Amino acid sequence: SPNPPPAQCGLDAAPHPVYRNLTTCLDSSTATPPSSWHPWTHKPYCTPSSSTPWCVFTRASSPAAHGLSVITTPDEASAALNPLLHALDAPFFAPEKLMLPRPYEVRDIPGKGKGAIATRRIEKGRAVLVDYASIFAVVEYPADVMREEVRELLRVAAAQLGEPEEVEGLSRRGRRGGRVAEEEEGEEGMSVMEDVMLTNSFGTVIGGKEYMGLFTDLARFNHACEPNAFIHFSETTLSMTVWSARDIEPEEEITITYTGAGLTSKERHKSLENVWGFKCQCSLCTAPPVVLKASDTRREEIRRLQDKVVELAQQGRFSKAIEAAERLFTLVDEEGLTEQMGDMYEVPARLYYHVGNLEKALEYTLKVRHEIDGYGVPGTLGEQKIEMLKGVIARIEREITNKQEREGSS
Ligand SMILES: C[S@@+](CC[C@H](N)C(=O)[O-])C[C@H]1O[C@@H](n2cnc3c(N)ncnc32)[C@H](O)[C@@H]1O
């Protein structure tokens, strides 16, 4: 109908400066999108009662044909999201690393529902999947936004997509009888979309704000405590890439981690059960206790060493700090955590520079840079850091050349 019920007109009831000139409630499916809500293609649907409007912004059929719905405030949409939309359909930044057609199939996996199984060999460092979000939903709402309103925002966010059944058909922990966190029990239970979001979305940060991001292809990748792949979110293209962390053989399941890096088994189980609502059945969690114990001991040591490196560096004991850092990297490698803990290179880069080992300082500084621009187009902060690192790298390279010249002439 061209005149939906008043609840659909929340925006008109509480006009926001960005959309001040919206005066009529048009049916989003049939109306020609007025320029007033450009670059979104649907009229924003907003909560009618809260003091600040919380709205669904939908851009139909882009990116990747399925479209994107974002639940946020008009301020956030115009400040952080609108400027990004022009880049959504940009080609993947490293086409030579992207595997096409996709090197995996979604199949049933005993004890885990569905999962991604490699159909051909995948070498380390390849992009297995680039997936564009279908829904981003803010993590926190103010107290005056009612739960029923959040449910409605989520329902509309899904319904306005090109193929709502793609998101509504994703796995749901409630439906499969998984453990549901206490605060969600009782009442009328979870709505379909609340359940889909809790079961399948990944935390992302856009413009400094946390969002739950729903990526329908990524959502089929299961968790493992020793994963063979890792995910990387690009704030610039709003896409998530699955990268292989090591060589993966055909018929192997491709797995990622849902938890923070380097957690012990107890901590992982707590996080997976409380946050994600399932009991982990990965190969490490189902391994004999002695194997699990050895892994926990290494992970505890990793954490101890991380603190130790910083402590020694603060005391000015640089050589000792480097020794601890090298031991740390060996353990991280043994635990298969190198790709997950890639942000740990800055401290050794500085330490090696301090003790005059320029080659090693350069090696680690290049790793720091790779962490920022090796997995996608960096956001504004990343660009600034890359500029700074360019200067540092040029300086170390110059110092190495000078040193070599001095050594050559003596
Ligand atoms: C994001 S989905 C992953 C795909 C899902 N298996 C499916 O069938 O679509 C998350 C859900 O997968 C299952 N899952 C993922 N990793 C698992 C694991 N290591 N052990 C057991 N179940 C797992 C859990 O049911 C969890 O709620």
Describe the secondary-structure layout.
Blueprint: H1 10-13, E1 45-46, E2 55-59, E3 68-72, H2 74-81, E4 104-109, E5 113-118, E6 127-132, E7 135-138, H3 147-159, H4 164-168, H5 192-200, E8 202-206, E9 209-214, E10 229-234, E11 239-244, E12 253-254, H6 265-276, H7 289-314, H8 318-334, H9 346-354, H10 358-373, H11 380-409
Parallel strand pairs: 3-7
Antiparallel strand pairs: 1-2, 2-3, 4-5, 5-12, 6-11, 7-9, 8-9, 10-11
Bound molecules: S-adenosylmethionine.
Describe this structure in words.
- The protein has two domains: 6-276, SET domain (Beta-clip-like, Beta Complex); 289-409, Serine Threonine Protein Phosphatase 5, Tetratricopeptide repeat, CATH 1.25.40.
- The chain is globular, with a radius of gyration of 24 Å.
- A hairpin with a 2-residue loop joins β8 (202-206) and β9 (209-214).
- It contains eleven helices and twelve strands.
- With 410 residues, it is an alpha+beta fold.
- α10 (358-373) packs antiparallel against α11 (380-409).
- A six-stranded mixed β-sheet has the order 1-2-3-7-9-8, sandwiched between helices.
- It is 36% helix and 14% strand.
- Bound molecules: S-adenosylmethionine.
- S-adenosylmethionine (SAM) binds next to β5 and α5.
- This is SET domain-containing protein.
- Residues 165-189 are annotated as: Disordered.
- Residues 102-259 form the SET domain.
- Keywords: Signal.
- It holds the Pfam family SET.
